[in-house]
Amino acid sequence: KLDNRAARVGPFMRARWVDWSASHSNSSMRFHSSSLISLLVLLPSALSQSCTLTALGAGKDDSPQFLSAMQSCPLVTVPSSTTLNISSPLNMTGLSNRHLNLQGTIKFNPNVAFWTAHGFPFTFQTQITFWILGGTNIQIDGGGVIDGSGQVWYDGFAKSSSLARPIILTLFQATNVIIQNVRMINSPEWFNFVNEGKNVTFNNVNLTAVSTSKNPAKNTDGWDIYRSDTVTIKNSFINNGDDCVSFKPNATNMIVSHLNCNGSHGISVGSLGQFAGMFDIVENVIADSVTMSNAQNGARIKAWAGAGVGSGIVKNITFSNFIESNVDHPIVIDQCYMTSASDCTKNPSNVFIQDVFFNSISGTGSSATVATLSCSPGARCSDVNVNNITLTGKKKTQYTCQNVQLGGSSASLFGTCTST
């Protein structure tokens, strides 16, 4: 039975990633042969429905035994005394009913040349990733650590801004997933990418990306959600160098709650409408009970304008109960993203924004302007509401708005919005 199950998983993985396998034939052959050896070693544990992993040590690659365990055992345990050395890509797609009890550490080898050549590629924003996880009914917990060895990547990116840096974990076509009670540290770029996922929950997943050199940990988003439905992120601390959470195109029915974000670029909807011929949707998003400290942005929506870009809709978005401290831009709508004012007037955004609520947002900004709601001309923003806003800026606090009619109890703070 075990051998049959392994045989079913193997062809699916090769077929799904045929381009990758074709371009990495030698490493792929080594990977699969090692996996078969590990599978035989793990057979007794697999028959008892669990596998416990021990690191091979001496710098050896633990990826094959980790892959074999996840393919063959419903419960996989990494003990607290174990650090797995991951030196080859992890393709864990097609799993079903799997539980990873991560008490120890999963550490990705800091071999920049290898990973730039062998990381799994995604066309969206030309990303690569260390680890792809997909399938149904998957749980990761246990209090352990996933370490992306990010410092070499922060230093490398400072020398070459074209350096492709891996995402730690990509959920691809994953349904009914719970990831909770783990830490992720030192991600080279994004920590988590949810791509074509459904019913995914992250709970008490604490993220830290802090450089130990003069080179910052750039683009270390906490979560990026793309083409996914029903994702919840809650009860987590994030210390990073980019968006705390970013809702990319076609993210629907999202809940973010009880997050503490430090040094980030905020909770961001978008950017949307970047690519010509594409219609982007983000709708039904709740971001509630968020503490945002020392950040570039707090609650933000951003959509492209100008010639030759895409279109879309942002609908039913609620930011509520934000406490902000030393944030550059606590409240933002930017419907002229990456576009000059004159070009935005000439070519307004085709991403329409409607039914947006900023409720109970308090704290301090790092400059005088604490809220900027900049919409394209032509009624591209509608039903934007501001309620119980108590933000304080440096010197004289300012609230600004453009091309939008505001509702809500705090609308008077903005005065009369300008028109372009």
TrEMBL record:
Catalytic residues of the enzyme: 265
Keyword line: Carbohydrate metabolism, Cell wall biogenesis/degradation, Disulfide bond, Glycoprotein, Glycosidase, Hydrolase, Polysaccharide degradation, Secreted, Signal
Gene Ontology biological process terms in this record: cell wall organization; polysaccharide catabolic process
Enzyme class: hydrolase
Catalytic activity field: [(1->4)-alpha-D-galacturonosyl](n) + H2O = alpha-D-galacturonate + [(1->4)-alpha-D-galacturonosyl](n-1)
EC number: 3.2.1.67
InterPro entries to which the protein is assigned, alphabetical: Glyco_hydro_28, Pectin_lyas_fold, Pectin_lyase_fold/virulence
Compartment list: Secreted
SUPFAM superfamilies in the record: Pectin lyase-like (SSF51126)
Family per similarity comment: Belongs to the glycosyl hydrolase 28 family.
Function, in words: Specific in hydrolyzing the terminal glycosidic bond of polygalacturonic acid and oligogalacturonates.
Name of the featured protein: galacturonan 1,4-alpha-galacturonidase
Record organism: Mycena citricolor
